[in-house]
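Archive transcription. Copying these from loose printouts into the bound notebook so they stop getting lost. Printout 1 of 2:
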Amino acid sequence: MESLDGQGRKIGTAKYGIYAFYDYDGEPIYVGQTREKLSGRVGRHLTNQRTDAVAMRVLDPLEVAAVEVWPLWEFDEMARHATTKEEKKELARLLDAYEYSAYLRAIEESRFKAILNEKIPPVSDPVPLPPSFKASLVTELHRVERGHADIRIARRAETVSRLADVVRERGQVTVGLRRVLVVQAVRLAFLSAQRLAVAEGRPMPTPDSINVSQLVGSVLAEAPDTGEEDDAL
């Protein structure tokens, strides 16, 4: 976040921006936006301070191995001139469009074609993303220690268990949170299957061995919550 861009600006000081987290396999796992400075928002995620994603057990900070950020410097000027309600709504709409574009990119890059966002960004016409800055968040020592498959399997199993507890205790549960629970379980199953394949000395499973779209439906737009889940079950 202290790195400078081509104009000498510190990346982390951008008040508006988009960010994406990646796991130890380079798999995109979460995309978000900020209006409070990139360094503050990303830092709160990774230091386990209160964010919706961490509080709801959607995102495990220790699973994050790299971050990519897109500073949106021009939004500072736009925000200063946005004085009417309509202008402020347009600023929010444009920020959503950047987030949705980064989200679509993450979905495309994901081996499962699904990531851990509880709330899918509002559907928007894709916009060109500005130059990004990406960096590893772990040392080689941490990568060896925390990146071991058995450690990651144990952490993912714990994350799934805690997320299931949130679902059980929350009362009214969003469809997005239930979708994340499925995606986390898929990630756990696939990593466990990879570990088994290594132990047995056979070829690794391929991501298409799990049909995620069949399990969770479309991840390109938020599904309506009908409130009829108990009746359906």
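Printout 2 of 2:
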Amino acid sequence: MFRSLMPLLARDFHVLAPDLIGFGNSAAPSRESFEYTFENLTKNVAGFLAALKVDQYFLHVFDYGAPIGFRLAMRQPERVLGIVSQNGNIYQEGLGPKWAERAKYWANPTPEPRAQYESAFAPETIKGQYLTGEKPGTVGPDGFP
């Protein structure tokens, strides 16, 4: 989805697309060394923006990035020139019924329910997320296993 969008935006904007810790091509520290919370991911992105001396920006938030982008906007609204939200829930009701079962797992992360979600991270599942709906041969293999 973003492979086509980013070059179009880059015609008029300086595009920054930080890779969240544990996502994409970034390192995935162990849960013992990094607490995977939206709060910690927000701190990381805020540090990224500070290191690049980005004072104002438009936000394009999507999926798991939405809670991070909205936290940035709430902390320093004067920096945000606009927000485009694409599939980014900011309310619990928007998650839908499938997340109710996952919330049970989050509250009690035992090995049995964890095994049910392993297929979500299987190479074929991830590959399908990148390739479904795209013309064969048009998506580079660098973004999926």
